[in-house]
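Blinded run. Sample ID left blank on purpose so nobody reads anything into the name before looking at the predicted structure. Input follows.
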Amino acid sequence: MSETVTVIDLLRHGEPIGGRRFRGSLDDPLSTLGWAQMWAAVGEHCPWEAIVSSPLSRCAAFAQALAERYALPLEIEPELREIGFGAWEGRTAAEIDAATPEVLGRFWRDPLHHPPPDGEPLPRFQVRVTGAWIDLLERHAGRHLLIVGHGGMIRMVLRHVLEMPLTRLWRLEIPYGALSRVRVYGRGATAEPLLVFHAGSLA
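Blinded prediction complete.
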């Protein structure tokens, strides 16, 4: 029996209305540019057998449009929503830095020990995202899947794949509309994941 090979593409949402800021659980929709960024990332390609999306509209609206274009099944997975940024939600980095100098720098260097005030604890975020990832790998074993999600969520998946420490989570750059691909050989505890490419596109 041949080894099971599962391919999962991870697509970050495009720019939301209001531009770059900490959003977390805020449900701002995509801007016109954001839609264009996401369509540009996939081009005219459709190698997927199914699409899974975060429930937030900046992901789910495009996932639904893509699924309808190619008649693909769409699954909304609540556990793939973005990390909660607490008191920082809705604010820009410049606004946070002006109000509380030094805090952002500590957060970027070590988010585990310097989280946003009232934000979702990083270990809790890790458990829900990696749990959802492992479940998707099992349920879609042997298929080519597209996950439409968030910068923090995709970082957490890639951190898991590469076995990076939580303190280094923000060393991965995930631009708007960026696509990354992971190929997984085998199933379960002995599965071997491979990062094929990062922050690219199919266009």
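Unblinding after everyone has recorded impressions. The chain has a mean pLDDT of 95.
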